[in-house]
């Protein structure tokens, strides 16, 4: 979820999202690292959008804040559209990271999905902004996989875990580290259809406002 500001002077469309991280595996350093990773990926395409008969440069402003003692009420009562709340733990019952819906502001991150420049946080951020997985998950011959393709996608060999593996065999599916945010991902946000208020502000995504308890490994 994010708050949008349309700046007619600089011709920039700014998407501001603040991530509040909690959980036993969270830390100040990791919070900043994950936020920085999201920002790098989503700003990489230097995307543009046509709004009100003008071209605007799309800029993502992402902040990461560590809140180890986050209270559930803070999540439940939040009304700031820029704020997102994610628990980070070493274990997840689903064995993956997830958000609480397409267009949401809460979720659960599995620690090993986030480290070593993974694209997981950037992928899940796309979900919070309203993007789903593409319907067609066999993209052989299509080149660079965009950020919203999930694990298990069939792709060209150079984007697999093992470029020599046969499709769907061990190593023969999309390595998520090879995903990138493309202009096409920005287009799918349909920023041109947003309703801006008198201050040229708008909201992308919605409130799910779920506080997550730590998953039990037993």
The main pleated sheet reads as:
8 strands, mixed
* Span between termini: 33 Å
Separate helix tally? 4
Overall CATH class of the largest domain = Alpha Beta
Average of per-residue pLDDT values: 95
Which range best describes the helical content: under 10%, 10-25%, 25-40%, 40-55%, 55-70% or over 70%?
A: 10-25%
SSE string, helices as H and strands as E: EEHEEHEEEHHE
What is the count of distinct domains? 2
CATH architecture of the largest domain: 3-Layer(aba) Sandwich
The CATH topology of the largest domain comes to Rossmann fold
Q: How many beta strands in the DSSP annotation?
A: 8
Strand content: 15-25%
Point out poorly predicted stretches: none
Instruction: Identify the overall geometry.
Output: globular
| Secondary-structure class | alpha/beta
Please give the radius of gyration in angstroms. Answer: 18 Å
What's the quick description here?
By secondary structure, the protein is an alpha/beta fold.
Task: Please describe the topology of this protein.
Layout: E1 2-7, E2 12-22, H1 28-43, E3 48-51, E4 54-66, H2 72-76, E5 83-89, E6 98-99, E7 106-110, H3 120-128, H4 183-188, E8 201-204
Parallel strand pairs: 2-4, 2-5, 5-7
Antiparallel strand pairs: 1-2, 1-8, 3-4, 6-7
Helix pairs in contact: 1-3
Description of the molecule:
The chain is of the alpha/beta class. The chain folds into two domains: 146 residues, 3-Layer(aba) Sandwich (Rossmann fold), CATH 3.40.50; 49 residues, no CATH class. It has four helices and eight strands, in the order ββαββαβββααβ. Strands 1, 2, 3, 4, 5, 6, 7 and 8 form an eight-stranded mixed sheet that branches. The mean pLDDT is 95.
């Amino acid at each position: 979820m994010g708050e949008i500001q349309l700046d007619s002077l600089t011709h920039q469309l700014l998407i501001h999202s603040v991530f509040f991280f909690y959980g036993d595996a969270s830390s100040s350093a990791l919070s900043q690292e994950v936020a920085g990773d999201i920002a790098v990926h989503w700003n990489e395409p230097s995307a543009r959008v046509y709004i009100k008969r003008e071209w605007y440069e799309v800029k993502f402003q992402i902040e990461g804040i560590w809140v180890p003692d986050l209270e559930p009420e803070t999540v439940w009562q939040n009304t700031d559209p820029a704020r997102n709340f994610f628990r980070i733990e070493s274990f997840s019952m689903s064995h993956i990271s997830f958000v609480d819906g397409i267009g949401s502001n809460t979720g659960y991150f599995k620690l090993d999905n986030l480290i070593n420049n993974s694209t997981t946080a950037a992928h899940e951020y796309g979900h919070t902004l309203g993007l789903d997985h593409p319907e067609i998950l066999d993209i052989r011959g299509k080149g660079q996989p965009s950020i919203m393709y999930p694990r298990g996608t069939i792709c060209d060999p150079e984007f697999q875990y093992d470029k020599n593996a046969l499709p769907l065999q061990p190593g023969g599916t999309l390595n998520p580290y090879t995903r990138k945010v493309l202009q096409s991902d920005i287009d799918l946000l349909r920023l041109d259809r947003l309703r801006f208020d008198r201050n040229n502000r708008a909201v992308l995504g919605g409130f799910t406002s779920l506080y997550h308890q730590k998953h039990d490994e037993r």
